[in-house]
Design a protein that fits this description.
The chain is of the alpha+beta class. It has three domains: 31-170, Jelly Rolls, CATH 2.60.120; 173-398; 415-557, Reverse transcriptase/Diguanylate cyclase domain (Alpha-Beta Plaits, 2-Layer Sandwich), CATH 3.30.70. Helix content is 55%, strand content 16%. The chain contains 16 helices and 14 strands. The longest helix is centred in the C-terminal third of the chain and has 43 residues, at 363-405.
Length: 563
């Protein structure tokens, strides 16, 4: 286990090293030619105008009062585009349609059809080619607001050569990009693995739900950092993917916790978890039915998610204090707790940033991806510990079961296992044949040569019995010198052949090792010979025929019959 944990630590460090290397590889080659327009903007809003203002100050100037159907016009001068091979402008639109003009020429327009139909418009980055001109140009961006009070922050547009603009964006989002892709791929692989073990290890449900949460978290990271559209065309649905995956985190978290220590049996936990999950799923339903959009219900979700985080932490510390948790469960819950705390801190930091209380930082960019990786790491450790413990317990259980149902000398199934097998036969409609077998001369060998010789006789007999019948019959030792073989219908026509082969094998032993004579009396009966098909009755009939055969053999071999 220590070796596996060391391997996981090395794997995590290697992943972080690769992300760091990629981070610098994607650093824009011509960083000096990348422009980020965060200053010197002119703004028109509700017949008011503001000159030479920064994007950081625009929400404050607008008094955070943008409403649906309002129009915000942003304009400024941008450098000539002739110095770039593929001049490109990248900017973020939030819950609005827009028109982009350069020198009063419309170069790009989007979402106006959605705005006209009253459909939902999310947040998206737009990469727009800029006309080649050898003089400074006037940029004008007209935003047609679709949601109330949601232009509470602006992201600076980026201007430069296409490849540098794209590398600039990837450079600044390398960590969440790599983390999101990793979480989705790892979650899918982990889900397949846990599903393959589910039948043999039904208690693996917490890992199963954790793998779904990894996929969900990866989708949310790609949506939150506006990266999904770099992989697939979501047709302006990226924000809905972001919010759906975000809202599903609460139900998935409760599912994971409910499987640990069977908290689903606690009525308080069930009331809180079901209520919270129902509200989160209900908010998604309200969005897609057009009642209220998810971005407007985000404050309600934040309250529920914070409640979920604190409730989960309370459960964890309560279980830990009462020493209910296994080491694997402690590690998994610690990883989940780190993720929950990171979400709370990230939300608090982001809320302060958009209200201009604190400056923006990489904290909000790196905290949740890092917490997601820690959660993955914790689940891997949990998974390895759980599998090791489970297989050790299964091995121990199998060993104890074998001891309980195996004969100590011959290692064949014993009388208890035989009785259980007969019970199962009585419950089924299958036809079968019971062969009763009894060693000849065991008592004489015990009396003359000692019990060690008798045990050797029994062991040799059982080995020959296994060789002749094992693949075609259930065989067991049910008494001192009494054995039984039970054949299914497909082997009915082989009974006499198998018995002949068995007796011939004993004769071979007699020739090779003539210390004592080995022989067996046998008798068999079919379940079809008994009216009520009772296994005990079938055995009695086979045993009766065996004793008839035994009398004949004793008379032939001159063995005195036991009374």
């Amino acid at each position: 286990m220590i070796k596996r944990i060391k391997f996981l630590i090395i794997a995590l460090l290697t992943f972080l090293l690769l992300v760091t290397i990629c981070h610098f590889l994607f650093y824009p080659a011509n960083a000096g030619k990348i422009y980020t327009f965060d200053k010197e903007w002119s703004v028109e809003f509700n017949e008011e105008s503001f000159e030479n203002i920064t994007l950081y100050d625009i929400p404050k100037a607008l008094n955070y009062a943008s409403k649906k159907v309002d129009t915000i016009v942003l304009s400024r001068t941008i450098p000539e585009s002739s110095s770039f091979d593929f001049p490109t402008l990248m900017f973020l639109s939030r819950y609005s349609a827009f028109d982009l003009f350069i020198d009063n020429e419309l170069v790009h327009s989007e979402y106006k059809d959605l705005l006209k139909n009253g459909d939902y418009i999310g947040c998206s980055y737009h990469v727009v080619p800029v006309p080649e001109k050898d003089h400074p140009m006037e940029l004008r961006l007209v935003l047609y607001v679709e949601e109330d009070s949601f232009y509470n922050y602006f992201v600076a547009p980026v201007y430069g050569d296409y490849h540098d603009v794209m590398r600039f964006y990837i450079f600044h989002n390398m960590f969440p990009l790599a983390s999101g892709i990793f979480l989705i791929i790892f979650g899918a692989a982990f889900l397949i693995i846990t599903l393959s073990f589910y039948k043999t290890l039904p208690n693996i449900l917490s890992q199963l739900f954790a793998s779904v949460l990894f996929i969900d978290l990866g989708l949310w990271l790609l949506g939150y950092f506006r990266l999904i559209d770099f992989f697939i065309d979501t047709k302006s649905k990226a924000t809905e993917i972001e919010y759906v995956s975000l809202y599903l985190m609460v139900p998935l978290t409760y599912l994971i916790v409910s499987c640990i220590q069977q908290h689903y049996r606690d009525w308080i936990f069930m009331v809180v978890s079901c209520t919270s999950s129902f509200i989160c799923i209900g908010l998604i339903v309200l969005h897609f039915t057009g009642v209220i959009h998810m971005n407007r219900t985000l404050p309600y979700y934040q309250c529920i998610s914070i409640l979920c985080s604190f409730f989960m932490l309370i459960i964890f510390f309560k279980d830990f204090k009462q020493k209910k948790l296994a080491p694997a469960e402690v590690i998994q819950l610690l990883g989940l707790s780190v993720f929950a705390l990171s979400y709370i801190i990230n939300y608090a930091a982001f809320s302060l940033e958009i209200r201009n209380i604190v400056p923006s930082s990489f904290l909000t960019i790196r905290m949740i991806p890092m917490a997601g990786l820690i959660f993955v790491f914790a689940n891997l450790i949990n998974y390895f510990i759980y599998l090791s413990e489970s297989f050790a317990m299964r091995k121990e259980y199998a060993s104890l079961t074998h001891l309980a149902y195996a004969d100590g000398l011959t290692d064949l199934p014993n009388r208890s296992r035989y009785d259980k097998y007969l019970e199962d036969l009585d419950k089924s409609d299958d036809d079968y044949c019971i062969v009763s077998l009894d060693l000849n001369g065991l008592k004489e060998i015990n009396d003359s040569d000692g019990h060690a010789a008798g045990d050797k006789y029994l062991l040799e007999f059982s080995q020959v019995l296994k060789q002749c019948f094992d693949d075609k019959a259930f065989i067991a030792r049910i008494g001192g010198d009494e054995f039984v073989a039970i054949l299914k219908k497909e082997h009915f026509d082989e009974v006499d052949t198998l018995l002949t082969r068995f007796k011939d094998a004993l004769e071979v032993k007699n020739v090779l090792y003539p210390g004592y004579r080995r022989s067996v009396a046998s008798g068999y009966a079919f379940s079809t010979e008994v009216e009520q098909k009772n296994s005990h009755s079938v055995y009695l009939l086979a045993d009766k025929r065996m004793y008839e055969n035994k009398k004949l053999m004793h008379a032939k071999l001159g063995i005195v019959a036991r009374i």
